[in-house]
Amino acid sequence: KQWYQRRVRGTFSSRISDFLGMIKAPTTWPLHEAFWSSDHVVLNNLLVGRCRATLHRALTSPHIYLQGPDETVRPDLCHLFELFQEHGRLISLHDWIRSYGAALGAKRLTNEIHARFIRGVSELQFMGYLKPTKRKTDHVAKLSLVGY
Question: d(Cα 48, Cα 105) in Å, to the nearest integer?
């Protein structure tokens, strides 16, 4: 029985060593650059996206992502984000909606402008750029991750 176990063990180890001897290093494969990399920083940058930087770029330069006949037209959220960056740590919603209406070129604030403003503010809150304050109910606070 022991001689059989030694024989099986020897055959198994010789076949494994023959197989491993046939395998070439991945860096010798054709087009290995497409499938194999030893630089973990490059792989990390490719696999783990930079959400905050991508959002910031999309909100400040929407023409990069939006294609259309008129590249000067900007979404409401981009107008709000531009005004958001101009304010300090606490933002008065009243001042913000006044400046938003002026940026749109409206002479007076209509229900449509109010609805567009509220939608944009809630989207910025959902993306993590601001939060409501408990101290002042008519203000919102910028979150600390906004500054790069």
Answer: 40
